[in-house]
Amino acid sequence: MPGKKGLRWQDLDHSREALYDVAMTSRASRESGPVPEFLAKKAAEQEAKTFQWYSESLMQFWKYLESRGLGLVGDLNEHNVNLFRLHLREKGLSENTVSNRLRALKAFSRWMGKRGWTDGNALEDLRVPQSYRPQFDLIPDDLRRNLFGLYKPNTFLGARNIAMLAVLSDTGMRREELANLLSANVDMDARTIKVFSDKTEEWRYVPMTDEAVALVKNYLTWKARYFSETSRHRINGEVSRRTRVPRVLQSSHVFVTAEGKDVAPQAVTLLVHRAGKRLGTRLHPHLFRHDWITRKAIDGENPSLVKRWAGHKSYAMTDYYFGVAEQMLGAIKPKRSVLATIPLPGARKRGRPPKAAAG
């Protein structure tokens, strides 16, 4: 909508407008300002966890400004953000959390400049420290073996859970990618999976090993058998009377529920969490991704291939795992020392000394 004297909305000065405002009426409330507009965009485009990160960061910053009697578009500047940084540190938040909050504000500031709320990026010169990625241990073989042993491979749900764990272990797939995997994108003969990442908005191909293919094929066999049979349902809610009703597959995804519907990403997290609880350890779906990429690095796989298989946006992320792999390789004790045949000073060998050769 044109502004005064024919100026476009983007050309007007919005510095005196509120970053976040709520107009209350008798019937409803209406949010306005760049903060709710930006969050609505992220809610529509990003995963729930990413949207939550933006929402928590921006609302925490806005409440901080409000506590100081501020909260206008013009108050989004480097000085106030640095004061907010000190405020977070005084509250005892970790450097990683502080860094994450600032990165969200920088993304918000870039969007405001493009959208026309501000004249350019107000936080362009703000320096944000690099987050320290947490260290983690590889999933031990005995733990993985016990994990797979929790489920029966000769039942639909048991075979499904085993196959889901197999794909997580064998491809490094993200939780959402596993839940949204389409049957048409799994080629058992070629042993490849075509994956779409909402995070990078790109397709990629990931290979599968023979072991993973065997477990997925077993699940698909039980899946076909399960949905070819009928199930017993109560008649009009009566307790004693039941009838046989055909099971209906309502999803084109590989992994489905017993009702034939899509498996939600949260259900994958719940499955892994409950399994870890039964085994007395803490597990989450992303740990399988950490484990898979690190093992590829330890095996000496090409970093370029690992980046493509994992769906990383940059080599920096892939390089982090190769750095972790180097640390783990350095901690491995060699099976045999190259100095095994060299006599060590002061070291005495057991047994009688060898007899001197006859002269």
Note down, in words, how this protein is organized.
There is one protein chain. This protein is mainly α and 359 residues long. It has two domains: 4-115, DNA polymerase, domain 1; 141-330, Intergrase catalytic core (hpI Integrase, Chain A, Orthogonal Bundle), CATH 1.10.443. 46% of the residues lie in helices and 9% in strands. The chain has twelve helices and seven strands. The strands form three sheets. It has a three-stranded antiparallel sheet with strand order 3-4-5. A hairpin with a 7-residue loop joins strand 6 (230-234) and strand 7 (242-246). The radius of gyration is 29 Å and the shape is flat.
Estimate percent helicity.
Answer: 40-55%
Average pLDDT for all residues: 88
Please tally the helical runs, counting DSSP H or I stretches of 4 or more residues.
12
CATH architecture of the largest domain: Orthogonal Bundle
CATH topology term of the largest domain: hpI Integrase, Chain A
Alpha carbon gyration radius: 29 Å
Strand order, sheet with most strands:
3-4-5
Structural class computed from helices and strand pairing? mainly alpha
Shape: flat
Summarize the helix and strand pattern as letters.
Answer: EEHHHHHHHEEEHEEHHHH
Regions with pLDDT < 50 over 5+ consecutive residues?
Answer: none
**Could you tell me the number of beta strands?**
7
**In angstroms, what separates the terminal alpha carbons?**
111 Å
Biggest sheet overview: 3 strands, antiparallel
What's the CATH class of the largest domain, please?
Mainly Alpha
CATH superfamily of the largest domain: Intergrase catalytic core
Q: In the residues, how many domains can be counted?
A: 2
